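Input/output pair, single chain:
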Amino acid sequence: MTYSVAVSGASGYAGGEILRLLASHPDIEIRTVTAHSNAGQPLIQHQPHLRSLAGLTLQDTTPEILAGHDIVFLALPHGQSGQYTDALGDTPLVIDAGADHRLTSQSAWDAFYGGAFHEPWTYGVPELPVGGAKQRDALRGATRIAAPGCNASTVSLSLAPGVAAGVIDPGDIVSVLAVGPSGAGKSLKPNLLASEILGTANPYAVGGTHRHIPEIRQALAASTGAAPDGIRISFTPVLVPMSRGILATSTAPIVAGVTDAEIREAWENAYDGETFVHLLPEGSFPRTADVLGANTALIGLAIDRAANRVTVVTAVDNLVKGTAGAAIQSMNIALGLPEDRALSINGVAP
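Output:
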């Protein structure tokens, strides 16, 4: 069966990456691409690397144009998806790459985003440990999927095995991330100009203000079925001069009495057999260059007994595993297709 697809926000980074991956998907027909200010222009003018889609023209983003497809991807800025999802009730599968349907708590939404709160959808991180199982179980047959925030899913995949196994204390997590500017979207912003980011590293959303914090707490709490109140995290992203990528370094205290072997076994057991999440051999740690263009999360684990903490270093491509790849992987699961269809574990080098 071939599924017809519409992609909104198709002139942006996330929308463009969704299109790049879908273009090689044998079960997908990309029928419609939409935008706001760029409507009426050729897609190729804004995504010149998508040569196979050169015949498509960006249309207006309206419920009427998005309707009538088997699958709709919404790659819109936070707070803009909800106005369309309410009108797409007849669409068999809708996948939101924004934040509008990620959070289960309205108070968390009000505190970090504001504006209208929309119902939470099935979270699109298939490998995430959840109550003794994996999130992919909830994705099978899902009709509404919330793709993750790239920083949030990276930290959650880093630490959920330890939280679920009870070998680390989730009440004192510290995460520092080196992130590429493509995660901030394609809109022109002075702080993202090349002259502002080349040759420097810039922290942002410091002091517990980043919008992905409640999403991380929600995901880690789900790994044990506990309330998010028990998850405390100091989260600091740092903008660095690489177009793509996240390198997340996360630490948490070791629970008293837990052995080194039990710690490593928690991550080994969680990701054994996973196609896209790989625990590296002891003493090895990932680079962002190793996951460029891939739907892969590479994890390095260290046990720091002097500080009595576990250190987890995780690398992902924020536009693939962090956003578009996670969305398409979740789509494949929901439709009963091979989970890895149109997705690669191989990065691009050098």
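Residues 154 and 314 are 7 Å apart (CA to CA). The chain has a mean pLDDT of 96.
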